[in-house]
Amino acid sequence: MKRLIDQELDQLDAQFTEMGVLVANAIGAAGKAMVVGDARSAKEIVAHDHQINEREMKLEQRAFEIIALQQPVTNDLREVVTILKAVSDLEHAGDHARDIALASLKLRRDVNLKPVLTLIEHFSMFIEKLMRDMLTAYVKKDWRFAQTGEQLALDAYQQHVEIYEACVAAIKQNSDQVEHILPYMTVANALEQICECALNIGEWIIYRRTGQIVELKPVTTVTD
Q1: Which fold does the domain 4-210 belong to in CATH?
Q2: CB of 202 closer than 8 Å to CB of 141
Q3: How far apart are CA 115 and CA 95, in angstroms?
Q4: pTM score > 0.85 for this model?
Q5: What is the arithmetic mean of pLDDT over 69-84?
Q6: For residue 146, which of 59, 92, 76, 86 has the smallest C-alpha distance?
């Protein structure tokens, strides 16, 4: 027979997974809206952002109630801490998806910026898959997949650099279009931040399994 705390932790996991699906869908929708110029979808993402925030608050409240009422220890406590930390990263990823949707409303899809948009499209698809894969790892408690996060972070960093360099080149060639190029950089930065959120979740997956705090994100920065 399952313990009461096991049942409550299962419910938390299910709620976290539902929230994760919402966030991953928002990331994917924001990327597609940006690429095709779908203003309606972009505005819907912004309008529905509060749903993700509300789910985060409910999850946090329930997790704190479990700590107060059940007084979990060792593995049970790690489960609750993992959810508390990971749900915050999910919420932040949702915020960045909203930022992408907002930036997409300002994009000008000029022919000379098509190479930049193509790079961003590929980056967006990569980041959406990364988030979905990390959420799958969370559900399956696959801490070994989470350990591959460092290489994924390097791949994301390289794509971010390529977009940054393409934007700088576009600015040099079309100095009068700076205001139209900057939103592309904003989107690239938001995608990289989502990557960081996904890797943070990976770190908490490993913590839940091993009790160890690890760092999956390599120390890299885009130079000015």
Answers
A1: Methane Monooxygenase Hydroxylase; Chain G, domain 1 (1.20.58)
A2: no
A3: 26
A4: yes
A5: 91
A6: 86
